[in-house]
Amino acid sequence: MASNDYKKVTTHALLEMKQRGEKISMLTAYDYSFAQIIDDANIDVILVGDSASNVMAGHISTLPITLDQMIYHAQSVIRAVDRALVVVDLPFGSYQGNSKEALNSAIRIMKESGAHAVKLEGGAEVLESITRILSAGIPVMGHLGLTPQSIFKFGTYTVRAKEEAEAEKLRTDAKLLEEAGCFGIVLEKIPAKLATEVTKSVEIPVIGIGAGAGVDGQVLVLHDLIGLTKEFNPRFLRRYLNLYDDVKGAVESYIADVKSKDFPNDEEQY
Ligand code: KIV
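Above: inputs. Below: predicted complex with 3-methyl-2-oxobutanoic acid.
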């Protein structure tokens, strides 16, 4: 079975893709319109990422976005999606306090948005929360490596786990997440060699962003891929469009047409 044959992508389907060596495609979406387009294009997984905090709201980090705001984005995405598995980020502050709070946050996302799974950042330090969410029957995806909710601890967005101690913790955390029952792990901005090793060491799918080609799938922020974000140019990003300039050009043409009284013409009115 090829991934396009799945009428609905499930966590089990992702496992099957890993087992037969088919790469998993994953992109972010935060609204109905883009979610509809990428689902129609047969993306496997849609992540309602807390990167909405940067991309949609203009914050400098993912920290300010709230649980209510994540649910709003997830509801909009879910309305558009027929096929993809929709995973929603638990935002900063909604799961680190204690496992009960984590479970309540995950339940709100699932109940109020209709999403299929949640993702949260961290390994051993959030294991209790992960276990409690899983015990309620909610699929959980882990996220290791560069975890943007900890950016003020890291200080920079540079590659993580280059030093052996951090690499070793990442290896251990990946195994812990698998043993706890996570259905997948995102690895962000770590050396490709380490990502390949971790991918081989676990049976669950590993999705990379800036983690090289040896992982089971790739995720990017849609707005980066289509060139709506202009300033963000990390080495791992492949841009397929330059929509910032295209949209700006279209708006400039519209303004010129309005000013010159070219728009609307005789056919564009009643
Ligand atoms: O929020 C997000 O967009 C993410 C991806 C970078 C994986 O977590």
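The chain has two domains: 3-239, 243-270.
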